[in-house]
């Protein structure tokens, strides 16, 4: 037991004779006792050394009073603040090396999250439900009421239909965020931050270097989880418009995949979910969990691996810059890269 945990009772110890004290202190020989007293007097810090103090109830001091003889050192409970521990090697500030490395990569100031996990779950569930309702029910129902369906439209009509649907889904998601977080306003300045200042363009450029690796993961994913033979092969509308070489339709689809989708998705997954998770887990775990959620939201098992890795890259860029403009631009560049790859 450490010396810090021994209670001090000066009133009771005053009544104990010096011979009794000598008997209770491990029955040390007189020469050893004198030697320890001289050593502690010459080097007082040696008494506080954790390695020498673990097997003793207290440090020997050269005092005349028997009650003060057993008195623990002042501040003994704070020895961990004076000496480095196993997870604080050779660090005068008491900060672990791993924490220093994390701060060097992501910065030192954490997000201040005023809401709880209940709000996080509520926002994400409402966002998923609204995404499904708007895209699968509300917009088709309105189109049916106007006397047409998506399948009956031309390439340009289908592209415009997709653009309006995506805008409606994004606005619904932002409305949910605003409604659920209204009672926590005003938020700190690092929430949902858009800024042209800083050197965030460098982080975006480094993230773009990951695109070939993400593309390779797409092929690995298809090899691991190929399409089932019984699954119907459908050609997306965007690919049909490319085959037809309709410039207006291609331009509308480019707006959907390179502008609208990155804005809505980054606001939800990087702007809201990732910082909110840091209240309950480390930053690297928050990046990973938000990336998995981002991949699952695309409802494509054949693209799960590249989407997770893409989410990690965008999460790291956002955590470093604290700027949604950086992750949105990186997301937009990736979608544009995939869109242009369809022209091959």
From TrEMBL:
GO terms for molecular function: endopeptidase activity. Keywords: Membrane, Transmembrane, Transmembrane helix. InterPro entries: Rce1/LyrA-like_dom. The chain crosses the membrane at residues 125-147, 248-268, 303-319, 324-343. Signal peptide: none annotated. One of its GO terms (biological process) is CAAX-box protein maturation. Residues 250-337 form the CAAX prenyl protease 2/Lysostaphin resistance protein A-like domain. Pfam families: Rce1-like. It comes from the Eukaryota. This is CAAX prenyl protease 2/Lysostaphin resistance protein A-like domain-containing protein. It comes from Cinchona calisaya.
């Amino acid at each position: 037991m450490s010396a810090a945990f021994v209670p001090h009772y000066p009133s009771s110890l005053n009544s104990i004779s010096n011979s009794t004290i000598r008997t209770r202190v491990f029955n040390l020989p007189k020469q050893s006792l004198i030697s320890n007293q001289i050593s502690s007097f010459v080097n007082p810090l040696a008494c506080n050394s954790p390695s020498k103090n673990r097997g003793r109830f207290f440090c020997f001091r050269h005092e005349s009073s028997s009650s003060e003889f057993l008195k623990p050192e002042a501040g003994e409970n704070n020895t961990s603040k004076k000496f480095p521990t196993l997870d604080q090697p050779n660090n005068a500030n008491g900060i672990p090396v791993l924490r220093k490395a994390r701060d060097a990569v992501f910065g030192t100031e954490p997000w201040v999250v005023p809401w709880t996990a209940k709000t996080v779950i509520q926002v994400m569930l409402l966002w998923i439900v609204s995404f499904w309702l708007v895209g699968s029910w509300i917009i088709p129902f309105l189109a049916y009421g106007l006397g047409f369906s998506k399948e009956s439209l031309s390439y340009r009509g289908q592209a415009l239909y997709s653009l309006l649907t995506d805008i409606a889904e994004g606005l619904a998601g932002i409305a949910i965020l605003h409604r659920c977080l209204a009672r926590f306003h005003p938020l700190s300045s690092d929430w949902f931050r858009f800024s042209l200042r800083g050197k965030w363009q460098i982080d975006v450029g480094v993230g773009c270097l990951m695109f070939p690796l993400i593309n390779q993961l797409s092929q690995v994913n298809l090899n691991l989880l190929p399409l089932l033979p019984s699954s119907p092969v459908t050609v997306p509308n965007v690919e049909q418009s490319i085959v037809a070489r309709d410039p207006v339709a291609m331009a509308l689809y480019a707006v959907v995949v390179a502008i609208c989708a990155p804005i809505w998705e980054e606001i939800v997954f990087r702007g809201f979910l990732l910082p909110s998770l840091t209240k309950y887990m480390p930053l690297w775990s928050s990046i990973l969990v938000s990336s998995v959620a981002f991949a699952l939201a695309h409802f494509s098992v054949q693209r799960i691996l590249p989407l997770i890795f893409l989410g990690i890259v965008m999460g790291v860029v956002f955590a470093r810059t604290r700027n949604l403009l950086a992750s949105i631009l990186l997301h937009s560049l990736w979608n544009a890269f995939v869109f242009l790859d369809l022209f091959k």
